[in-house]
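ugh ok fine here u go
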Amino acid sequence: MSVRYLSCGDTAFTVEFGNRISPQINGQVMALHGAIGAARAAGELKGMIETVPTMRSLMVTYDPMATSRTALQPEIDALIARGLPTEAKTRRVTIPCCYDDPDFAPDLAEVAERTKRTPEQVIEGHLKSAFTVYVLGFMPGLAYIAGLEPALYLPRRSQPRVRVPRSSVAIAMDMTTIYPFESPGGWHLIGRTPLRLFDQRREQPVFLAPGDHLTFERIDRKTFDRIAAEAEAGTLDWSTLVTE
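structure:
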């Protein structure tokens, strides 16, 4: 396995597995992330603070008073040399999504026009896409989810919105995402989920995790309102959405 090490100042360095986004490369990143976690739990890699996975690389941060890149890099090389299994146990997550309310899907008609499809075909393409959560970033709970049906690939909007409603489901490039908070955003809004992807009332506030396999389930507005009310009240049974 060919990797490249890049310095990130005097307290971190990056282990880079490639220069493209792919399930294989991201799987190697997450496998090394897990292997380092296991090594630290066993008392190895003294002085390391944490690892931060990205689409195609892993940042390693450390205490420069306790260790250095010179000391840590050979240990990480040894972990990689042992082999990084990329078939780790993952969850299968179902996300309910309402596509039918114009307020929820303001870009659906434009996406259909630009991809030379009907709005219904856009929805069908999104529903049948085999999605995988790669990383979390930009804001707490926002997942970068790859695997969008190729026929729906579009660049980001030329004019980003100042405000995107919380729980909006959006697409851009080969990805989809769900906005965990109201925020600016430049992706195409095609639906909305009644779920809160970040909720500090839960024991684990962030719902999605890297490696999750994800599918969307179409719901109508009445079902959306019911699930949203349960999520708001804190009575939603989240376990029904996950298969281990």
